[in-house]
Amino acid sequence: MLNLMDIQPGQCIRLTNGVTGEVIENAGDGMWVKARFEAGDEELVFCEDIAGLVSPPVRARA
After folding, report:
1. How far apart are CA 60 and CA 2, in angstroms?
2. Which listed site, 3, 8, 39, 53, has its alpha carbon 20 to 30 Å from 27?
3. CB count, 10 Å around CB of 16?
4. Which runs of E-coded beta strand occur in 1-62?
5. What is the layout of strands, in order, in the sheet containing 32-37?
6. Whole-prediction pTM value?
7. Distance between CA atoms of 15 and 43, rounded to whole angstroms?
8. Domain 4-53 belongs in CATH node 2.30.30.140
9. Model pLDDT for residues 9-53, shown as the tens digit of each residue
């Protein structure tokens, strides 16, 4: 199980729909992170939409 409290800016996540993004902010509430995606979009991502961390990290394009 992924603990969102441990996710740091700069880490990359994979969503349940297969999209990857770079975490740019962690709200610190264990529920939400803000991520930047390949198209440059920034979105809040809910914990249940995160499948896991991408390893090794793949940086999203700005």
Report:
1. 20
2. 39
3. 10
4. 12-15, 20-26, 32-37, 42-46, 50-53
5. 42-46, 32-37, 20-26, 12-15, 50-53
6. 0.83
7. 12
8. yes
9. 999 999 999 999 999 999 999 999 999 998 899 999 999 999 999
